[in-house]
Amino acid sequence: MNDDQGERDTTDDAPRPEPNAVSVKSSDTFLHRFLNAEDGILLFVRETLVSVSAVVAIGLLLFAISGVWPPMVAVESGSMEPHMYRGDLIFITAPDRFTPDYAYEDTGIVTVDIGSEKEFSSFNGPGSVIVYDPPSRAGSPIIHRARFYVEAEENWYDKANPNYINADSCAELRNCPAPHAGFITKGDANGRYDQASGIAEPVKTEWIDGVAHVRIPYLGYVRLELAGMFAPMPVASEAGSVDAQTHIAPDFESTNQTVSVV
After folding, report:
1. Lowest mean pLDDT among 21-30, 78-87, 110-119
2. Assuming Cys at both sites, which of 44, 56, 57, 214 could form a disulfide with 91, CB separation 3.0 to 4.6 Å?
3. 139 lies in a domain?
4. Number of H helices, E strands in the chain
5. For this UniProt entry, which residues form the secretion signal (predicted)?
């Protein structure tokens, strides 16, 4: 027997790996079982992670578009009816996003008087609908329409619609003259301006959390039901008017439309 034959015999006698050894070993790893599970706890965990990841991705996309967090608020009451209802989900953006050139100065807010002149409509009415949170307020942020702007110490009695005040002069009108510059606001379903009814002082720009743009009916109910498990729902207190609020931590309350942050 020559040397070549001996080498072949030695090689032939060496143990050979089983055909599926590598694939069997890799299929037994935790990652493989996790990705391919069809039932049990691994399937539940995987599907939960996929759902959470999708929600986070959508949230980040909405934040990139809106410039505010959270970008969605849930309406809790009815001071903006019939243009917003309790349980509506509202998409909001920072005031400087998607703002027309004719917004009031550099605030990004279109008031009702400007909106009427420029034919700018939001939620079936002229002017911007804003979410604002005055520091003097103990309740949730308010979502109401910006009616007009006043300067500090301005007598805005003559500028006001007499149907939305309950006074015969500036001296009898709350927040008149204006204690500081800001927006006069009102819920579409309310009978008086927020500033005339004592809901808030003129709304400073730094109090504005966002501007409402899109209404999605009913989707806010989930947030409201969860909020209701931990805190009582706000109740409208002004006769003949209803309010809508947004829960920011928990969000929104009283003679104003409040919303719950989603």
Report:
1. 21-30
2. 214
3. yes
4. 7, 8
5. none
